[in-house]
Amino acid sequence: MRRTVLGILAALILVASTSCSFSTKDPNYVPPPPLPPLEQLKQVPVTEQTALAAGDNVTAFVTADRNIVCAMTSSKGGHINLPYELNAYSDSANNKFAVVPVVHCELAAYSKPQGEDIADDCAGTGLGYLGGTVLLSPDKAVYGSCRSGVTQMESEFGPKGSRNGPISKLRELADGQNIERNGLRCSAYNNGVACGNISGGVAFFVSREGYQLISDGGKAVRGNLKELS
Q1: Predicted pLDDT at 213
Q2: Whole-angstrom Cα distance, residue 83 to residue 167?
Q3: Nearest of 190, 201, 89, 91 to residue 136 by alpha carbon
Q4: Is the CA virtual torsion 157, 163, 167, 171 positive or negative?
Q5: Are 109 and 208 in contact (CB under 8 A)?
Q6: Among 56-60, 144-148, 186-190, 210-214, the least confident range
Q7: Which positions ≥6 away from 148 have C-beta within 8 Å?
Q8: d(CA 63, CA 95)
Q9: Helix (H) or strand (E) holding 10
Q10: HSE of 36 in the Cβ direction (CA atoms, 13 Å)?
Q11: Whole-angstrom Cα distance, residue 188 to residue 33?
């Protein structure tokens, strides 16, 4: 009887061992390069946006590494409705301006804008044209802005950040997810964020390492990241 039981156990162990498969890492495998921003925005399914709501008519999110915050919102006369930063969007004087859907992002760590991408001379105000922000409207994308001091994102998650404030309360857009609002779409991927107007053929990609500004349906690319890697 004991021999029979031992024989059955041996047979079961043999079957189990022969049915197992082992995988080894291919040293020659090269992962495919990340998609260009417009292609990423086209192909990835859209995530439900209600979980990322941040006040009236605003969808806002942060990336997993807490380096980028974005608000899918609106602008009036250049004033942007940001849920985490004081602004003049609601001033009655701005009611004469058209409401334009935009995406505005801020970075905690970022690169400087290239000379050819500086879109403003700061109108003699003495302010610097700095990196760390990017703005998408239906027809163009602009990196950097005229400002003094730090942004809210820098004050919370920059090198000397508090790690506490309105941005710290926002929900995360997981890597590989897309979110859409008012015809503009954003995706967290490749350690950064891409946002674009697919029908208009304009977009941007921004990360710690640099940025791309895309126009003409993806044919024209500016910025210090000519290709994603």
Answers
A1: 97
A2: 9
A3: 201
A4: positive
A5: yes
A6: 56-60
A7: 127, 128
A8: 33
A9: helix 2-19
A10: 16
A11: 16
